[in-house]
Specification:
Oligomer: single chain
Number of helices: 9
Radius of gyration: 44 Å
Order of helices and strands: EEEEEEEHHEHHHHEEHHH
Distance between the termini: 153 Å
Strand content: 5-15%
Strand order of the largest sheet: 6-7-5-8-10-9
Length: 410
Amino acid sequence: MPLQATLPIELCADCYAPCTADAYGRCAACHVECDSCGADAERLDAYGRCAACHIECDSCGADAESVDELGHCDECHGECADCHSTVHRNDLDAYGRCASCTVLCADCYGVVDPDELDAHGRCTDCTVSCRLCGRTCSPDESAAGFCEDCNWRQPYSHKPSPNFHRLPHERPRYYLGFELEMDRDEDDADEPEDYDAAELYFKLDGSLSDNGAEAVSHPCSFAYLRHTFGWQWLHDMRADGWTSYNSGNCGLHIHVSKSALPRCGWYRIFRLFERNPEWALRISRRSRSEFERWCDPQGQRAIAKAKSAAASRYDAWNAQPARTMECRLFRGTMNPESLWANVCLVVALVEWSRQASNRDGLPAFLDYLASGAPRSDLTLPEARALYTWANANTHARTGYIAEETSPCVC
């Protein structure tokens, strides 16, 4: 019996089942067709497309359903929030803007939101708000939080090289200077730089309000203060709303060169205040609480202060400055006559301490004034006026503590 002819058997390339294979040798069950063009496909990408229809991101190389005009997939696509141009998402700043639309701070060049910039193009990190007018400015333009327009006061730490003032051909034995604290309620008064005060500069002081200032004089001889120093600025500033005596928080500190008197002179002045606190309080014109806070005369013992010069800077007579002694006794004043009287009293104390003995106290000082303050630069009327003032505050010379002999500390 003759053998019957047989047809060759074709197996599916995937499942090996007998079949009529497609172009890639797969049966109907294993057949793969592109979702996009419908053609047989060897394999499909993640979106069911053949190699001819496959879309790949030009940036990350991943399969993409679609790409933008720059060939970026949805993950890499970016659109500028301002101009809406297409960019890579990594090319957008933190506020979603492209490089052409990015806004930089004029100071630090950081990327910022335009709404956060001040009028000078600075970000919030590069600006401070003026404590007086509220205007924003850069830290370099401000001092202690004040803008350039309000910043006519130097920082409290400001200490320029001293400019010594004296009369022509004068050779003073010592120099004097003062620090006058002033305050005001209004922030629109004229600035002190507008006043004629060539021997002064103005500073901030933490004990004052934001509107306040401390007027600091350069060193002047006593004769210069009497004949040449310009006092008109005090009248002008008082007329312009500045106060000192009535502010409740202002003092007048008068400095004198340490070379003006020896250590035993320091001791005599320390002892005078230490033993006569009620008298010191009355001539200071301060309230008791203010007096005890800012110029306590009863700190260390007088002899210890004179030897070490290490007493509290809040003593009535402060020896801590390197080159000066500071009398912190007086309440502030905008009256030139009162300020001058306080300067004269300091000069009288200095001159008396140079001539007195360690046994001398308040009675001897009053007698020195009553006799016209001999061997000093005070005029007779000035000495007599000081005597009347100082003596009236002793309650007929009974307000002082009994004196006692103390060792010399020269």
